[in-house]
Design brief:
single chain; alpha/beta; Rossmann fold; 2 domains; five-stranded parallel sheet; elongated
Length: 300
Amino acid sequence: MVSDNLIKILDNSIKQNRISHCYLLSSSSNIDINESLIYFINRVNNSKITSLNENELPANVMFFNEDLSKSKIVSVMENSTLASFVQNAYKIIILKEIDKASNASLNALLKNIEEPSSDTIFLLTTRNINSVLPTILSRSIVINIKAPSYLDIEAELINKNYAKEQAWFFSYVFNDLSQAEKYLNNDSYELVLNLLDAVHKSFKEKYHLYVFLTKFSKKDNKNTMAFLALCLKFIFSWIWNKLSFKNQLMKKVAGKLKDVKIDYFALFTAINEYLEAIESNENYFLQTERMLTKIVGAYE
């Protein structure tokens, strides 16, 4: 979902013919910023790109997602002095997570930001603005990319033909529409109902939840397990989030949470550690088994 803040700032800049040569998009770690980057490119260049895939980008857009070494940035800077390959369009150089670049790399970047060619825009991103060099901040227009609200996500999902109950549930599970689209399919809500049933039964016998989740412990089910872990975080948050439920099974689960002895700190720690490590090179089965063991162990 494109940030309203970005739309407002960029539209005003274009109307006033005051496009800056360096923008820094600042977001939290749980926001997919790519939609905002795509919107920026299309808005300033009147283009219609739909992806940041390097093989699909036009010649005037350069996207660097990981390699922010000095040699790479120097190469980028040399290219930035050349005329745009596309007539009547800005050359846009995207450098993601600029806070992770070395000082040597950033020093190479600073000179070009201070003396940019007239048709070049540097588009930087960060998920940790406190780690961005002050000299970069002072030369950038900083745009804070805020997470969409639950109501925003729910409305977008309803617009994509999800039933209201499903859209409501998923709006609390996912940070934005991009994340939802990564995990959801036609069977997702049925899986949620099965998960709720397993959680409900686990209040009498904790291993019901373990047995249900182990069905998805094979590596080809990685996305499904991540989806279930995200759903579990929402479900167990009902112990303190007082929500209004229409679904009867949800009402039963929420009503019994206060009577069940669970170490919620240990439970949420286990789920968060799993979600943070899921893309690492560690053995997937061992990761999953460790999380499931800790979840069961959180039941007192």
